Structures are given as C-alpha cells and as structure tokens.
Amino acid sequence: MKKMLLLLSLALLVVLASYGGAAEKVTLPIAVFPDLDGAYEQCLPLFNSEYPDIEVIINSLGIDDHHAHIVTTIAAGTGAEDVVAVEIAYIAQFVAEGGLVDLAQAPYNATDYSHSITPYALKQATTTDGRLVAMPVDIAPACGFYRRDVFAENNIDINDIKTLEDLFAAGEIITKDTTGDGRNDHWLLADAASIYDMIIHSAPELYFDEDGNCQVNSDRFREAFTWAKRFHDAGLAGAIGAWSQEWFAGFQEGTVAYEPCGAWLGGHLEGWMAPETSGKWGVAPWPALHEGEEPMAGFWGGSYLAIPEQSQNKDAAWKFIEFIATNRDSQITAFKATNAFPSWMPAWDDPMFEEELEFFAGQKARLLWTDIAKAVPGVVTYKYDAIANSIIAAELGMVLHEDKDIDRALSDAQRQIERRIR
Amino acid sequence: MAVKNIDIQNLKQKNMKRHMQRKEPEPLVNVKSGVSKFFLYLPLVIWALITLYPFWYMLVLATRGPAEIFRMPPPVWFSKALLSNYEVLLDRLPFWRNLWNSFYIAAMASLLSMFFCSLGGFGFAMYKFKGRNLLFNFMIATLMIPPLLGIVPYFIMMSYFGWVNTPRALYLPGAAGAYGIYLLRQYILSAVPPDLMDAARIDGCTEFAIYYRVVLPIIKPGVGALGLISFIGSWNNFMTALVILKQRVTYTLPVALRSFQGAAQTHYGAIMVGATIAVFPLLIIFAFMSKQIISGLTLGALKG
Amino acid sequence: MEKLEAGQIKINPFRRWQKKAAPYIFISPFYIAFLIFGAFPIVFALYLSFNTWTGVAGTAIEFVGWENYYYTLTDPMFWDALKTTILIGVYSGVPQHILALFFAFILNLGFVKVKEFWKATIFMPYITSAVAIALVFSVFYSHPNGFLNYIFVLLNNIPGLSSLLSWIGLDPPVNWLANTAWMRPAVSFTVVWMFTGWNTILYLAGMQAISHELYEAARVDGARWPQIFFRITLPCLKPMIQFAVIMTVIGQMQLFDQPLILFGVHGGTGRAGYTIAMFLYQTAFNWNFFGSAASIAYVTFMFILIITLITKRLLRSHEEVD
C-alpha cells in the first residue's frame, strides 16, 4: 500500500512538474527588417516543434527605421526586443558601442560553432578583445541578375562579359530609345551607383583599413567613382532609385537588363516584385575590374542576430538565435523562403543547392552563389561605417548628378569623415 | 456656502446678449456686378478644390489595389479593393489598437490641458501677484523654444523614468502648455468681469471654488476650443511619438503608418486605408465643431 | 465657512492667505511640468552639447568643451541642411502668406455667402496628420505614373503648352521626388497646402477687427481698391502678420514630418530634402552622436532666434517702434 502511494505521488509529482513546465510559456519578441520577417515566419513551425514553449513575436520595420529603433532602445536601456537583427552595415557600430550580450561567453559559447560559420561574417561581429556581440545568420554573396531575353535580343552572351569594359560595351548596345521620344527607355542598369557598389563591395577593406584609417581617398574609390560616372554619362543607367515603384516596374517590364545585387534579390523578384518574369532571369558573377583579373566577388548585405543586455529572456533568446544560425533545417528554410544565403557552412552541401531554379531558366543559381561566397574576401568593418557610407553616397550623388570633380569629391569625403570621427 | 446664483445668471445673460448682438458686419463693398463676383469667387473655388482633392484622392486610392495605383493612367474613381486592402492593413498592424492608442493619448492630453490651462489662465488673469508679469512673459518666451531642442534630452529623461514606450510620455509633459494658458488667460480677461471674484468671495467661496463654480462655466467655449486643439495636436504628433513608441501595439496612427511605409513591400492600397482612418475622425469632429475650433484658435492670436 | 450677514465683510486670516497663495498654486502645474519637461531638457541639452556621448546607458559622458560647436559650425552637412531648410522655408512660407492674405481679403469683402463653409474648407488641411497627407502626396507625385505627371503629360501634348512648359524647365513626366530641381518645391507645396488655410483664418480675424470707418473714409477720398489694400488693410494687419510669420518661421525651421515621409531618412537624391531636423534626428538616433546633436539643436535655435528678431524688426508696426 505504501509503495503504491509512493508511486502514485511520484507519478503525480512528475505530471505536475511537466504540467508546470509546460505552462511556462515564454513570449519572445524579436526585432527584424524585411525580408527576415518572411524568412523567420517560415522557420517558426520548425522552431516551435523543438521549443513549443517559446512564442515568437516578429516585429518588423523598414531597415532604416529598424536600426534607429534598436539604437534608441539600446541607448535607453529599455524597450528593445529580446532578439534584434543587425545588418552588416550597422554591425560594426554595435560591436564598438556595446549594449549587446557577449555570445562567446557561457552559457552561450557561440564560438564553439566557429568552424562552421562563414569566417568573414564571424569576424565582423567580434570585437578586438574577442567578444562576439552578434551571431551571423545569413550572408549575401552578390552577383549580377540579368535578363536573358534582353541579352538574347541584343545578341549578347553573358559569358563574354569578362571585364567592366565588356559590360560597358554591352550596355551601349542594350540602352536604346525605342519610342523615339528622344529619351532612352531601355537601360542596362537602374542606377550607375551600382557600378560603384560592385567595385567597393568586392574590396577587402571597406571605408576604413585595419587600423581605422579612412581610406576613401584611394585608388580603388577613385576607380569606382570614375567607372560609375562613365556609365552614368553614357546614359546606360535609368536614374531609377532602388526600391521605388519604377525600379519594380523596370524588372517587370525588362527595361532594366542588369542589376548587381545580393542573392536575396532573387527571393524578392520571385516572391513579389516580378513573379511573372519567371524564367527570364539568369545570374552571373560580376565582371573583373581589370583585364586578366578574377571576377569581382563581393557581398551585398548580411544579417546578424543579437541579444540586448537589457533582455529578460536571454535564455529563450539564445535558443532562437542558435536555432536560426546553426540549425541546418532552419538555414535551408530561410534560404528557400527569401534567398537569405546560409552563413552556416555545413548547410551548403544540401541537395537543394543543386536544384535547377525555374526562375532562372533552370540555372543552378545556388551553386554559383556558393562559389561567390567562398571567393569573397574577408571585409574589414569599422564602427563608423554607417556615417562613412552616408557621406560617400552624398558625394557620389554630386559626382553623378552635378558633375562634381571626382578628386575633389573624394578628398571632401575623406576630410568630412575624418572630422566626424575625430 | 451658497453662491449667489443670481449674479451668475445675470452675467450669463449679459454675455449672451453681447454675443447675439455681434452681428455680421455689413459688407465692405456691394459687389453688384456678377462678373466681378465671379472673378472674386474663382480663386476661392480653385483653392477649395485644391484643398479637397487630396482627401478625395486618398479615398479613391484606398479602394484600389497596389498595382492599380501605379499604372497609367492613374485611377480617378473608386474601385472594389477596399476590403482586401483593409485585410492587408490589419494583417500587418494592429491598426484598431493603434487607433485606440491615438484616441486615448489625445483624449488624455485634451482633458489634462483643459484642466491645467484653465487653472493657469485663471491664475494669471484674475489675480495680481508679485512677479506676475515676469512669470507670464517668461512663459510666453518658452513658446519660442523649438521642440527640436529638447527631443534628445526628452528621450533620455523618458528612458530614465522608464516611460519609454508608454502613453504617458506623450500626454503628460505637455499637459500644462504655455499656449493653452495664454489662450485661456486672454479669454478669461475678455469674458469675465473682475468684480465677479470679489462678489463670489463675499459669498464665502474658496479660491478654487471660484474657479470651479463661477469662472469655468463662463469660459466653457474657450476651454472647449482648447480641448479640441489639444486633441488635434496630440493626434497628429509624429516626431515625439516616433522616438518614444517602440512596439507595434503601442504605436499611434502616424507612427504605425510610417512603420508600414518602411517595409520593402509597401502595400499602398493598405496604407491609404490606414491614412483614411487616421484622417477622417478628425475631419468629422471638425465638420461639426469648425466654428468653435477656429474661433478658439484665432482668439489667442487676436488679443496678442 | 461662516454664514455672513448682509453688509458684514469678514475675512479670516486663512482666507486671506488663500487669496494670496491661490494664484501661485494655480499656475504651478505649468511651472512644475515646465521645469521637469521643459527646462530640464533644455539645460541638459546644453550640458550634452559640451560633451560626447553615445547614448548607451552606462557609457561615459566625456567633456569636450566647444568642440561640438566648432565641428557643427564647420560641418558642410550642417550648412547644407540649413540651406535646404531655409530654402524650403521660403518656398513654402512666402506663397502661404500671400495666398492667405489674398483669400482673407476676398472673404472679408463681405459678399461671400456661407462664409463659414469657406472658412471651414480652407482650414481643413491644418487638422490633418502630416504623415497621412505626405503619404498621399507621395503617390500623387510618383514618377512616371503619378496623377500630377499624368496631368502634365496630357498638357504637354497640347502644342502651345509644351513649349511653355519646357520654358519653365518642366519636361514631363517629372520625377518630383527624386529630381533635385523639383524636390524642394514639391515638399514646399505640401506645406503650403497644409498651412494656407490656417493663415487665412488668422488674417481674416485680423481684418475683421479693422473698423469700416477707415474704409469709408478712404473711399470718400476716392481711393481705389489696391490702394486701400496696401495703405489701410496691410498696415492695420501688421501685428497679425508679424505673429503669423514668426509662427511660420519657427515651424519651418523644424520641418520634419513631410520630408521624412517623401524622401526617406537620408533626404533623397543629393540630400536635397534633408532638413536640419532630419540631420539632428540622424545624428542622434542613427549615429549615436548625442553630444553633437545637442550642439546642432542649439546652433539651430540661435538661427531661429536671429531670423525671428529680424522678422520682428522688419514687420514692426508703428505702436511698437516707440
């Protein structure tokens, strides 16, 4: 009888304990920007099958607003979600300024995963004293998205475009005025600044070198500006702002034939920007800068997830981050959903990479992206990248639209940046 | 403590008479010629059309799907996408909650300012006290300080208090605003005879009772106008709300609309539905109370 | 309270104290609120402007003296933003007031029926949310298929008009929100749309206070309408104009909502729509330079003060001169 009682009470205890455990549902708000919201929504069922007690709430804001939001909430010490997404352009700022939990420490021990995470992504989120403030979750190898039909119409073979000079020549053929109103309506590019982006994003150093010296007044930047201006002055770009209605229209109607961008653009194009153009696109590596060189290989984006120090749910937050960043299935799901390229290298040998993508007329685009990802040089980022980007972009605008002298523009930019970060 | 009600009634009647007698002034010019009239009416009509057009356009766009909004030729008449736009809006944002947030904060701002500003205006208008002019002029000078100046420290303070992301950070600080006190002081000066104060005191009123039972009823129109103005100002506030509110469920309408705009897939049909909801409640209030709002606003400016 | 008999005025000490203390108590809410939410931020901003701070709770606030001010005053971005803000201010301020005076004058002539209707209609834009309206305008201005461009393209097809349009510099369809030549006028128009009504109402109220006898006297003397307007109406209206213009100046220098919605946080192509308010917002809330942002705020305040004083001087009426 006593034994029965003991067994019964033990059973009761177990039931109660599990019941108590199950009743402890944790709400985990996360802050992201598009298209991560779409990607993570797709991952939630997977996540919840492993962690049924964590209810994830996705808050999404436009990328600028999102970063202003996390800057202010981290500054305020309150109001931040438990998991925040940080884009590569801003990561260095947070690395330097703090407010995020060091994931290299116990109980997270994120560095245990180092061997499987794309090295340059990991490096960027690490401080000089070895703290890992954010976990890479996706990288963005960049390529050229081109319209097969437009290229074919103009008898241009994408494989013949080996250098920027070749791209320029192709652009001259493609750009035309079909309606006879004196203005071009078919262009190679949407915006000549893309040429600048290609050259800069494939360099091992961004705006600052290893020692934190601003190096915008360098040959590479000079070349980037000169090339961009050349494309612009020849009318090869439609002066169309990215993410504007016209930009979408350019893709839908084929008036823009080539767009250098991160792999994730494919997801946007297929998902909502121009789904009806499926089969008309192809992806190609960027041309080389100079004759005889390797094609430029660069990145165009990349996201990290971090835990603000103020979070009360660090445990659950880490579970989510770990899941998204290191779980093969979730990396693949996010990739399938929005072309958020996995930063988790073991995921790269998934059979889906061999898949022939219908949107790209059967091209095995994912393999190309993997190749590019391997070729991207590690990038040096610095906490003032966001400001440098802002200043340089303004100068580039003046060079392109107001014919400002390139040398002056670059030295002005250098001076302004140096002053700002004194 | 009985207030001599007769005095109040008397005063009210006198006020009424004064208002009734204020007829419309005779026309400055008798424009006989129909042609002249036409040319004088024309600018008004054109401007009225320009004024009304964006509201019309907003409604039209709210009934159109996003692809239709940007095609050529652009839409000029209604279509059938209202329901689907509305669904997208609600899918992305807790919009009715945002509407409630805007309403709640505006209502609180309105009530608080009506109370504190009338009290303050009463104090400045009806009492002679040491430092009165200095304090009043100082208060007016603060109107010139641009809000821009304080936004950063304001944010730091709110985070120090733990008020970030709370409604009270938005309605509490402006509760006793200088403009409102100024406005009501002018109103009280013009509408309430000073002898009333002594008369009420003789009857045994406390100072607060004088405010509450005697003066407040008289200045109801002015207070009402201030309440409406505060409501409108709070409803439309953007920059402060943008800095303070951090979660979708706490957003007010302007911030909610902005958050919608930033997304890569900006669904313009849904945004227009949201914009309509953000704009039309105020328009309806305005339609009924335009006279009071306008006179309340101009009163302060006139006497200044 | 004691019941008093007729004729007996008895004021006990408590009552006297109450009478003395009451005004201070009544006006205190403003001062308390102002001290906490008005004065303190201003003082703290002044303090911040002499320091650098990233704004992250717990990090150091370092004293740097005048460096922030020196930096701001020699920062090309600041002067650019200031120039933009003033240009937009002028493009929107001048039409606002001219139109308002004009409409108010017409309404004041007295023959307009149903004045309340016109007043209400013209005033309506003032009570709308700048954000909502800017969103509508962003669709209206869109390129190439926005409604405004549609109208201009149609007009351009009329032979005579097309040369007129290109003479002005318009080449439809125009990219109103991304062509640096047109961005500022575009945003200025949204401001004009919003505030003309408000100013009209102000001026109308002011005009109604002008005694008819003045007009009668002038007409007896044979004055014509333009003369009457410029010699009588305007001078009498000066205090009101001064008030309205100063309000406009103070508001325009802080323009934020519309340019943010229309152009985005960077102010659009070539930063043509980048106002001082946006610059301050970015400096503090995007780049974490809280100290620098505070110095920007104070320098801007100085400008507002200077421009306001100039305006006051230019528009002073006779009574004030003495």
Structural class of chain B: mainly alpha
Report the CATH C-level class of the domain at 93-261 in chain B. Answer: Mainly Alpha
Which range does the strand content of chain A fall in?
5-15%
Following the backbone from N to C, one meets helices and strands of chain A in this order, namely HEHEHEHHEHHHHHEHEEHHEHHH
CATH architecture of the domain at 25-139 and 300-355 in chain A: 3-Layer(aba) Sandwich
Quaternary organization: heterotrimer
What is the chain-wise order of helices and strands of chain B?
HHHHHHHHHHHHHHH
Low-confidence stretches of chain A: 18-23
Largest interface: B-C, 106 and 109 residues
Q: List the total number of helices of chain A.
A: 16
Q: Ends of chain B: how far apart?
A: 37 Å
What form of chain B results from the Cα inertia axes? globular
CATH superfamily (homologous) name of the domain at 93-261 in chain B: MetI-like
Strand elements of chain A, count: 8
Which architecture of the domain at 93-261 in chain B does the CATH hierarchy give at level 2?
Orthogonal Bundle
Work out the radius of gyration of chain A.
24 Å
The helicity of chain A comes to: 40-55%
CATH topology of the domain at 25-139 and 300-355 in chain A: D-Maltodextrin-Binding Protein, domain 2
Poorly predicted sequence stretches spanning 5 or more consecutive residues of chain B: 19-24
